[in-house]
């Protein structure tokens, strides 16, 4: 499989006067829904598509509950999910409260098997848009 890349010109947001440079970025792929993933898995399994969709739907439902408690969720050699919190800084630790939280994001760390499967990607650079 070949990953398609496109050329884009970007400026430095912290230095708008600096000359723009060209970069490669991944072309937008198509969104893959749970239904299609279930079909792919069904072709490799004795489970029905309905069984697989049920398992995947349940994972989507229980994952946030564990993350909200501060747990990390490990899915074997696939990888793990955890939350990361960003906060505003304050001068004195005594002034630090939950009000300083700016946001939360989900962090996914690929496991060894997933990393191995992604090694050796070949790339193709498309024409200018």
Defining traits:
single chain, 129 residues, alpha+beta, three-stranded mixed sheet, three-stranded antiparallel sheet, 3 helices, 6 strands, 28% helix, flat
What this model shows, in words?
With 129 residues, the protein is of the alpha+beta class. The protein has a domain at 72-89 and 98-118. The protein is 28% helix and 31% strand. It has 3 helices and 6 strands, in the order ββααβββαβ. It has helices at 34-42, 49-68, 112-118, and strands at 2-10, 21-26, 73-74, 79-87, 101-110, 122-125. The protein has a 3-stranded mixed β-sheet, with no helix packed on it. A hairpin with a 4-residue loop joins strand 3 and strand 4 (79-87). The radius of gyration is 21 Å and the shape is flat. The mean pLDDT is 90.
Distance between the termini: 22 Å
Shape: flat
Low-pLDDT runs of 5+ residues are none
Strand neighbour order, sheet with most strands: 2-1-6
Assign a percent range to the helix content.
25-40%
Going by helix content, strand content and strand pairing, the class is: alpha+beta
pLDDT averaged over residues: 90
Note the beta-strand portion.
Answer: 25-35%
Oligomer: single chain
Main sheet: strands, sense, barrel: 3 strands, mixed
Rg computed from alpha carbons, rounded to a whole number of angstroms: 21 Å
According to DSSP, the number of beta strands is 6
Total count of helical runs of at least 4 residues: 3
Topology as H/E string?
A: EEHHEEEHE
